[in-house]
Amino acid sequence: MKLFLLLGVINGFLAVALGAFGAHGLEGKVSEKGLGQWEKAVNYQMFHTMALFITALLLGKGASGMFTGAGWLFFAGILLFSGSLYVYAVSGVKTLAMITPFGGVAFLIGWVLLGIGATKVL
Prior knowledge:
The chain is mostly helical. The chain has four helices and no strands.
């Protein structure tokens, strides 16, 4: 429970910091497409930061296997999805964008596990 709360806090901080950096530090340095990718990365990171908090809170209710799996998948999704978009936005290296869907799949499976776990304990 504490681990996913800590991961949520760290990712929330990073999402805000990276969002501000994108809005103020990247303007005029990357293309409009790059800024859009950066913004998408920040949004997905923050959405799934909230999922990490929900997962941590639900871990106290039971179904720990489902929630633990969901938490790790949300974290992996942030790294793969948002991380690859951040790097792609500033580098333009298209092969990095091929990593992004793996993060999306991690998010999807994480939501399924969270849903299954929630139906067992709530």
